[in-house]
Amino acid sequence: MLKGLYAASSAMLANMERQKVLSHNVANVDTPGFKQLLVSLDEFLETPTYTGNSLSNPLANSLGSLEYLGTLGLGVEPGEETTDFTTGAISTTGELLDMAIDGAGFFMIETPQGIRYTRDGRFAVDVEGNLVNLNGHFVLDPNENRIQLDSSEFIVQPDGVIVVDGADVDTIGLAAFEDPDAELEREAPGVFMAEGGATSDEAGQILQGALEGSNANSAQLMTHMVTVARAYEAAQRLVQVQDELLGNSIQTLGRL
Predict the structure, then answer these.
(1) Rg of the chain (C-alpha set)
(2) What band does 46 get if pLDDT is binned at 50, 70 and 90?
(3) Within this chain, do residues 122 and 14 fall inside the same structural domain, yes or no?
(4) Could you tell me the pTM of the whole model?
């Protein structure tokens, strides 16, 4: 009976965590370059299960004459969070400073904490002529240097080369990773860090005047949230049933 209580309560806790992850994805469904979080359910704990050779002979059971049946699960727990790095839909904006990546690469940005990686290509030019993102972090070239623009009119070629008045002035750097889920650590929505830097040359091309949208689908997320909410309610009802059964058992034993 207690095993059922453990299983139901663990399901409630696991679904609370799943709902938290889904809510985070919903909150960033309109964030350019956002990569949704995924979380699975893993088995919580297992306990060995035995049966006696004779159900009518409890003494035999107490003497160790038991038959091993296997293990019995005691519920579930949320697994490790992973990131879905599939590409979001790319839409044309026509804005000179909007950039999208057609491929698996990431823009490199300089932050106070170090170099970080993002797919969010909403850029601007600060008062000193540096190319920055919306948080004021510097966009870097392939050599991890800041990019400075002396003109507000420029063209970014697919290979990242910035052209001003027909002359190449700099290049927007891209970094790619062979296994982004293992190599990248999420630091903020759409921003990642990597200990060892880029590990792949297959970064892709830059599309000027376009943005990559979030890869989180709002309709799917709402459906998942409803499913998780119902699973939580079912586990909650089971906890109540187990509690009532346990109370009745205690009262029965008390009368005996």
Answers:
(1) 28
(2) low
(3) no
(4) 0.79
